[in-house]
Amino acid sequence: MFRMHNGESIYDFQKRFTHLINHLVDLGRKFEKGELNLKVMQRVDRTWQAKVTAIEESKDLTSLRLATLFRKLREHEQKLHIFEENEQQDKKGKRVTLKALKSAKGKRVCEESSSDDSETKNFNLLVKKFRKFIRRKKNSPYKFNRK
Question: Which domain of life is it from (predicted)?
C-alpha cells in the first residue's frame, strides 16, 4: 500500500519510507539491503521509472546501501529541477533588439538596446571574436565546405 505520491519529492518519500521501516524494525521485522532497495524501486512514481531502470542495470541492488540509492535519486531530482528552470527561462525568453549603426569607418556595428552594460560588452566581444574567426577562415589555405 505504500507508494510515492504524485509530485512528492524524493526527500519526503525517503522520510516517510525510513519512518515506516524504523517502526517495522522496532516491531522485530528484519530486512536485507536488497529487499529494501527493491521496495523503494518498486514504490517510486511512474515518472522515475527511467532512472530506476538505469540504477537497476548499473548497480547490484544487494550490495547498494539504501542511503546511496536515495542520494542517487535526489541528485537526479536536482538535475530535473535545474532542467525545468532552464526551460521556463527559455520560454519567458529575454528578447533582445539590435540596431545596426554605421560607424565612421563604414563598418556596421550592432548595439543592444538593453540597460545592462555587462551584457552589451559580452555581446560586443562575441561579435568581435566572430568577425576575427570569419577573417581567419577566409584567409586560411584550407578549403572549407561553404554549405
Answer: Eukaryota
Q: Which residues contact 64 (CB under 8 A, 6 or more apart)?
A: 33, 34, 37, 55
Q: Chunked in runs of 10, what are the mean pLDDT values of the chain (147 residues)?
A: 81 88 90 81 80 79 81 86 83 63 57 62 87 78 57
111 close to 99: Cβ distance less than 8 angstroms: yes
Position of cell 529494501?
A: 36
Contacts 24+ apart (CB under 8 A), 74-78: 74/10, 74/11, 74/14, 76/48, 76/51, 77/9, 77/10
Measure the CA–CA gap between 71 and 45, rounded to whole angstroms. 16
Q: How would you classify residue 14: left for phi > 0, otherwise alpha for psi between -120 and 50, otherwise beta?
A: alpha
Query: Domain segments of the chain: what residues?
Result: 10-92, 98-139
Show the cell assigned to 4: 510515492
Burial tier of 95 (Cβ tally within 10 Å: 0-12, 13-18, 19+):
exposed
C-alpha distance across the termini of the chain, in Å: 60
- Close Cβ partners of 6 (under 8 Å, ≥ 6 residues apart): 45
Nearest to 36 by CA among 17, 19, 54, 52: 17
